[in-house]
Design a protein that fits this description.
Elements (H helix, E strand, L loop, with lengths): L2 E4 L7 E6 L10 H16 L5 E6 L4 E3 L4 H12 L6 H8 L1 H4 L10 E5 L2 E3 L1 H7 L3 E4 L4 E3 L13 H8 L2 H10 L3 E2 H6 L5 E2 L5 H14 L2 H14 L4 H15 L3 H12 L9
Parallel strand pairs: 2-3, 3-5, 4-6, 5-7, 6-8, 7-10
Antiparallel strand pairs: 1-2, 8-9
Helix pairs in contact: 1-3, 6-7, 10-11
Length: 269
């Protein structure tokens, strides 16, 4: 499969999604798009998965974006009203979900960026809460150089995540930046040596997964909901989200475990 999901037995509650087309720069053709969409739906529906990791196969490219050779011909045929095979149609239909553009994973996502992240690969990265990059990674949004509008996550999320001027430099110049610059402007958390990338990603994911699952999910949701609210509304909304959590079994267990100086046993209720 061109994108696969694994749940390592030594990392409970973690799912790892890998884009696996290194010979094609991990570009997203219709089967890969469909596979990614399927994996994201699986993760969103499984409360036992408390954190996910996304990476690419190989040592050169995280994801080069859409496979233009594979998708343009299919999209043009569809636009002409021609019949296309079911698999190709499913891939086109699933693009937004595959890119996590408007699809809520409901689960924290750590992005282990093993190489270049371009266009759709950049969009996927923007959907992650935590991002690690290898030193040779580069980042670019190249749509305007192709006469296209970046319809994934870039215009929606990028200006909310980094400074206005930095977002527009990436969106309007179509020029790549290196990992050092990405870290400087807050696009990635930090730069990690290639041989340590997945170890560090698992360390972060395991740390998240050890926390109370309901609290993690609701905190992640709360950040998104209050981000664009006026301050009075934001404070009210965070109380609306936080108050029910204080009455959960997990909240009581967390307090008992703290007092008894032992690890908590979460029940997710």
């Amino acid at each position: 499969m061109t994108a696969h999901i694994d749940q390592p037995s030594d990392h409970p509650h973690i799912a790892v999604v890998t884009i696996d087309r290194p010979e094609r720069a991990n570009a997203l053709d219709p089967p890969t798009v469909s596979a990614l969409a399927q994996h994201w739906r699986q993760i969103a529906a499984d409360p036992e998965i408390r954190c996910a990791i996304l990476t690419g196969a190989g040592a050169r490219v995280f994801c080069a974006g859409m496979d233009m050779h594979a998708t343009i011909a299919v999209a043009q045929a569809l636009a002409r009203g021609e019949r296309i095979d079911d698999a190709a149609f499913a891939g086109l239909r699933d693009v937004a979900t595959a890119l996590l553009a408007g699809f809520d994973l409901a689960t924290p996502l750590v992005c282990a960026i093993n190489g270049h992240a371009r266009a759709g690969g950049f969009d996927l990265m923007l959907a992650a809460e935590i991002r690690l990059a290898v030193p040779h990674a580069t980042f670019a949004l190249e749509e305007v150089a192709l006469g296209l509008y970046p319809t994934g996550n870039a215009t929606v999320l990028l200006p909310r995540q980094i400074g206005w001027v930095h977002a527009h430099e990436l969106l309007l110049t179509a020029q790549p930046i290196d990992a050092t610059r990405a870290a400087e402007i807050g696009l990635v958390n930090r730069i990690v040596r290639p041989e340590e990338l997945m170890t560090e990603a698992f360390t972060i994911a395991d740390t998240i997964a050890r926390n109370a699952p309901l609290a993690v999910r609701e905190t992640r949701r709360g950040v998104r909901e209050v981000l664009t609210l006026p301050l009075p509304d934001a404070y009210r909304r965070q109380e609306d989200i936080g108050a029910p959590l204080r009455k959960t079994d997990d909240a009581r267990e967390g307090q008992r475990a703290f007092a008894e100086k032992r690890p908590p046993v979460w029940r997710g209720r």
